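job 3f2a | input accepted
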Amino acid sequence: MNNLFNILLKPFSYDFMLRGLVASVIVGVVCAVVGVYVVLRGMAFFGDALAHAVLPGVALGYLIGGSSRDTLFWWALGAAVLMALAVGRISKHAQIREDTAIGIMFASMFALGIALISTVRSYSVDLSHFLFGNVLGVSTRDLVLTSVFGGVVLVTIFLFYKEFLVMSFDPVLAATLRLPSGLLNNILLVLMALTVSVAMQTVGVALMVAMLVTPAATASLLTRRLWHGMVVSAVIGAFSAVTGLYLSYYFNIVSGSAIVLTATTIFLLVFLFQPHRGLVWKKR
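job 3f2a | predicted structure (284 res):
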């Protein structure tokens, strides 16, 4: 029993591990809750595009303010919000499909980021945490920023829960009720941008879309009501974050990868063994 407690408590005897734990749980919950709308509305591609669209913001922040995490965060946030609003604007007024607008903005923002980064000779070292995350490098200030913006996202979703629900399931009813669908859609896009920026330092751009989609997709297999899905998704996201940190500590692997692999393992187990609907259950 003592050995079990030592295994569980030893990693968190270090302050940086405690900060990483809190940041990972916050990010896991926020990504999972927002991810329910991403999965419901079929916006996984948009989540991936947003994750990569922060690249020019990070590059500009690096060129102007160096490799300070604070600087990179604010520039990445600005780029993500700009991308989100631009997609909403183009798809509404240019009479083209939203996925087309996403593709245009994704390609252009990513190309701009690569062009800017190519001017920085040491980018492969200095910006590696941007690509793969660095949850163990989270400072107290980073934790405060993560908590504040994560709280803003969750509170906004709570306040607009009914409106987002109607808009996601029945756009015709939303129009009949005269809900400001354009404004609500932009709010949701900005919430996704905030989520991407908050999660960037934990799982990085390369794995960002997995934390948005995987817990929510798992919850969609287990639940039939939206708020049930949010709760289950948040639990999966938090559990994946904690388990991923343990795996990272004891097996010396990248924390972001461990978190994502844990979430993916849970999805596969549910997909295969879910009672009555799992693939293995059906075959039996």
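job 3f2a | The mean pLDDT is 81.
job 3f2a | closed
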